Amino acid sequence: MPLGPFPVTRLTPSATLIQAFATHWREYLMEAAELGTLMFIICSFGTLIYSDHSPFKLWGFSNVAKAFLMGTAVAATTLLIIRSPFGRRTGAHFNPAITLTYFYLAQVHHWDTLYYIAFQFAGGLVGVLLAHALLGHDLSAPPVCYVITTPGAYGNAVAFAAEFSLSGLLMGLVLFATNRWPLARFSPLAVAGITVFYYVLCPSLSGFSVNPARSFSSAIFAWIWRGIWVYFAAPGLGMLAAAVIYTRSFGLENVYCAKVFHDLRSTCPFNCRFYQFYHESQLCDPE
Predict the structure, then answer these.
(1) Which DSSP category does 153 fall into?
(2) Max alpha carbon distance in the chain (Å)?
(3) Distance CA 202, CA 198 (A)
(4) So what's the pLDDT on residue 3?
(5) Could you say which of 8, 39, 70, 182 is the most buried, measured as most Cβ atoms within 10 Å of its Cβ?
(6) At what angle do helices 110-135 and 17-50 cross, to 10 degrees?
(7) What pLDDT score was predicted for residue 107?
(8) What pLDDT, on the 0 to 100 scale, is given for residue 61?
């Protein structure tokens, strides 16, 4: 266990399913709350921007302008979640594809991986349920339809390519930024910035998901499953591809923790070497 200024509560390799829950149930609930919050915001702003009763429809906003507004709302929410006490503690995955990628990189225990993914899906469903209770027909009716993600006019293959590529770029950015001291503090801003770009680029291709739990949470309420396999397969494969490229380029030893943003105060539940990373960075700092 690294000796740092923050507690590290990583599980031992022999930990049981019950021991994992007893140790990290707070982190699991926080992960659920994070994706629940994101889904609530996605549904709320999706209704505000795209509903037939939306003022943006009366004002004649273009599709690009609407996508930019939607991307900005989601990016701002993502940034706040990552920087929040919950995000600082759990690593702010709120995405099964990210959790699986860090499991592949040996940063997340297998029981934590299982619980994280289960609670991410549960949290997404609760977020949509709360949005439906508030917004009702405006959220469920076309063209909003619970803000589902479906392949665009170019078909499943193009949607898969878009989700694969964008997921890989996102994960590659996270790995590169979080494991370089001058960039680590800016990783939440980088994720937020690329989210806006994605939303403007991808509405006609795939609807922009990069998150299986996000797509599932909308699809199960809308009961529209067209192309759902794209949103289950492409994000995970794209992020795993990015992880393979990163480790072959820089080495597995240059992945220090599974957090999207790490500070020097919040409890860490992972196979964490961030204090070593911090200490080495300070030694190399000419200041």
Answers:
(1) T
(2) 60
(3) 6
(4) 47
(5) 39
(6) 30
(7) 97
(8) 78
Q: How many domains does the chain have?
A: 1
Contacting residues for 269 by C-beta, under 8 A, at least 6 apart: 8, 9, 10, 11, 23, 24, 27, 89, 90, 91, 112
Please report the pLDDT score of residue 286 as a whole number. Answer: 43
Query: Domain for residue 7, yes or no?
Result: no
Cis before residue 7, ω within 30 degrees of 0?
no
In angstroms, the CA 81 to CA 89 distance is 11
User: Distances from the Cα of 201 to the Cαs of 66, 159, 163, 196, 240, in angstroms?
Assistant: 12, 12, 11, 9, 22
The CATH number covering residue 186 comes to 1.20.1080.10
Among residues 229, 273, 281, the alpha carbon closest in space to that of 255 is found at 273
Q: What is the mean pLDDT of each run of 10 residues along the chain (287 residues)?
A: 74 97 98 98 94 78 85 95 97 97 98 98 98 96 93 89 94 96 91 86 74 97 96 97 97 95 94 83 55
At position 261, the amino acid (one-letter code) is F
How far, in Å, CA of 218 to CA of 96, rounded?
15
3 in a domain, yes or no? Answer: no
